[in-house]
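pinging the channel bc i need a second pair of eyes. not urgent but kinda urgent?? the chain im working w is below, pasted from the shared doc
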Amino acid sequence: MDIFLEKLQIWFAKRGIYVARALRASDIVTEMLRLIWPNTTNLQLIRVGSELRGDGGYLIPDDLAGLSRVFSPGVADSMEFEKIFLSKGIPCELIDGSVDGPPEEHELVRFQKKWLGAESTSESISLSDWVEQSALPGEDLLLQMDIEGSEYESIISAPSDTLERFRIMVIEVHDLRTAVSRSGLVLFRLFMRKLMESHIIVHAHPNNASPPIEINGLVWPEVLELTLLRKDRAEEVGGPAQLPHPKDQDNTDRAHFYLVAPPAIP
């Protein structure tokens, strides 16, 4: 039977038809939840940005001492996150192709009207080129990224040594409904494995602006806020973290939901 199936696959392949083992949606969601489920560390999480319901607030490790610069692609109309760093005298690099300037002027803010992408063009810039142009050698950086789906190409195309410059990364991951497919899972795996070469996930928060997918008791969001910490910054890495975190806030006044731990995560 195995030989027959192999010959059948070859027959289909010669005709441009590729046969692969079907993956159940619940299996895909389980794997993705395992990939993004955060770990506990010796560092407490603090909320930076909006303290109330709404976008602009994120949980990050309390490890800000010595940070040199913040990179924040995707500005739109809010600088709530950046204000805490500006108040500490930390310069902020901002880019956004959809607006003409930052929502507020500040002497430590440098803005470029560009998109972040896989390569640098007249209208876009790659993460590696942006860091090389804007950061000094040896500076320890923080990345806060909200670029409506372009995070995949920007991260996957970035050299590993560029990502290693960031002590902390906060990334809004979009279009996650499309990940619940075989091809979508492949892209999501590439994205997560690139991040986790040098970092660990310390927090995950689903954005409730859109309703989630619910399959066999598991919940998967359309947009997910991920916080990552560079591995050398954690003195201790414990077991899976409990979600939601007490400091989490809903992004909108729409229906509340939270992530459900997949099998094998207590």
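so Residues 23-240 form a domain with the Rossmann fold fold (CATH 3.40.50). and The first helix runs from residue 2 to 14. — does that match what u expected or am i reading it wrong
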